[in-house]
Amino acid sequence: MRLHGLNLRGIHHSPPLREFPPFREIPPLGSWGGDGCYDGTMADVVIIGGGPAGSAAAIALTGIGMKVRLYEKARFPRAKLCGGFVSAESLADLARLGVLDAVRAAPGIPIHRSRITVPSGAHAEANLPAPALSIARAEFDDLLLNRAADLGVEVIEKAVAVLPEDEAPWMIIASGRQPGQGPWFYGLQASFEDRQPEASTIEIHLVGSGYVGVVQQGTGRINVCALTTRQAFREGDGSPDQALAIWMDQNLRLRARLSGAHRQSRWMSVGPVAMGLRQIARPRRLFSGDAACVVDPFAGEGIAMALRSARLLAQAFSQTGQSVETTYTRAWHHEFDASLRFHRILRQFLERRALQEIAVQGMALFPGVLRWLTRKTRPTYDEISDPRPFPIAAQG
Q1: C-alpha to C-alpha distance for 257 and 244, rounded to whole angstroms
Q2: Closest to 250 measured CA to CA, from 60, 118, 104, 122
Q3: Lowest CB count within 10 Å: 265, 281, 336, 377, which one?
Q4: Rounded to whole angstroms, what are the CA distances from 125 to 117, 361, 363?
């Protein structure tokens, strides 16, 4: 069931730098009845946020028999600033959630190779350890939310701000980035026409202030997504087009890749964004996705972690030996800490221009190194042949 139109009080949402106009205020929370809308009844768990982390958690917890209510501030489908890279590690989790076939049938692009370039023009590329997918977040998120609604999750869209505390004994916060300490970064994203098709390849072009990611996303269209600093944005006079022109001057292969390509969508931007861990659990509150930890987009692991966290949540609620909060926190750290440490090391290494050149030239000579780096920045890989789907409880 997908409903819309509630005003909630209490949850913090980190605002975008430039994205979409704010949602219109809607009537205050009250008793709704007669048409199947929210009538004040209790749920077992309330989830804040309908992105991959929230929708996946809703599906997984419904599968173990919990009554779930999900609040989302937008009306889906909606555009979302993101590279749209769904790593191979995510596919087994999508199978468990029952949406893998739908995602593969959507206008997604199979991704088999990765390429990384540096300003001098040096580059390295290698096959991914297993095929991945490129898909726009508007389609991807909508598929997950529809799956949750089909399984009986009460989905309430266009809900803004914060929830009352007494609506459910448990709350899962999956509402995106929470405040954190710097250094701060800014994200930019737009669609361009693809004049030089590089199907099945995800590209990372390093520039002085960060990187620009390029991947095919739909027929004749590429997604250009950049992570940069405030200073670099100011150097472009606050214009994303001017900032991109500067980066194209800095990286020869990026310039060749985007030469003559025309932008097909308006720019979206978001920030400031601080990388790193926020919080995993508080009494009766659990955090998932970016609300728990903002992962460096360079690693392309954000969606994978959001989907994998749904399994960890279901396992935490299913066990009886320890508190849910303790079980989830320990499982989260066991699953992700090693790859997060590697992210930090890799970013510090690649931020140094001289080391960039040495590293990429080494990867070009030994492509296995790039494959190894790709694997090290991911959660545990599961073969798709044995997806072990979540048990779907009978809906009463």
Answers
A1: 12
A2: 118
A3: 265
A4: 9, 11, 8
User: Could you tell me if 140 and 103 are in contact, meaning their C-beta atoms sit under 8 angstroms apart?
Assistant: yes
Q: Which residue ranges make up each domain of the chain?
A: 2-82+138-180+275-354
Residue the block writes with tokens 């430039």: 18
Q: Read off the pLDDT of residues 105-139 as tens digits, 9 standing for 90 and up.
A: 887 788 998 898 988 888 888 888 788 899 999 99
Q: Name the residue among 92, 82, 145 with its Cα closest to residue 383.
A: 92
How many CB atoms within 10 Å of residue 117? 26
- Token pair, residue 1, equals 């069931």
Distance CA 218, CA 396 (A): 40
Chain segment 341-364, per-residue pLDDT in tens? 776 776 666 666 667 777 777 777
Pairing of strands 221-228, 184-193: antiparallel
d(CA 38, CA 54): 19
Other beta carbons within 10 Å of 291? 28
Contacts of 105 (CB under 8 A, 6+ apart): none
Q: What is the CATH number of domain 2-82+138-180+275-354?
A: 3.50.50.60
Per DSSP, the three-state class of 306 is helix
CA dist., res. 324 & res. 330, Å (int): 10
**If you search the block for the tokens 């992210």, which residue do you land on?**
343
Rounding to the nearest 10 degrees, give the CA dihedral for residues 218, 197, 303, 146.
10
Residue 4 vs residues 63, 74, 79: alpha-carbon distances, Å: 24, 9, 18
CB neighbour list of residue 338: distance below 8 Å, 6 or more residues apart: none
Q: What is the pLDDT, as a whole number, of residue 96? A: 92
Cα(378)–Cα(306) distance, rounded to whole angstroms?
12
Asked if 335 and 329 count as a contact pair (C-beta separation under 8 A), the reply is no
Identify the CA nearest to 305 among candidates 290, 316, 318, 315. 290
> Which residue type is seen at 378?
R
DSSP assigned state of 47? E
Ramachandran quadrant class, 36 (left: phi over 0; alpha: psi -120 to 50; beta: rest)? left
Q: Which of 20-29, 33-42, 143-152 has the highest mean pLDDT?
A: 143-152
Residue 190: helix, strand or coil by DSSP? strand
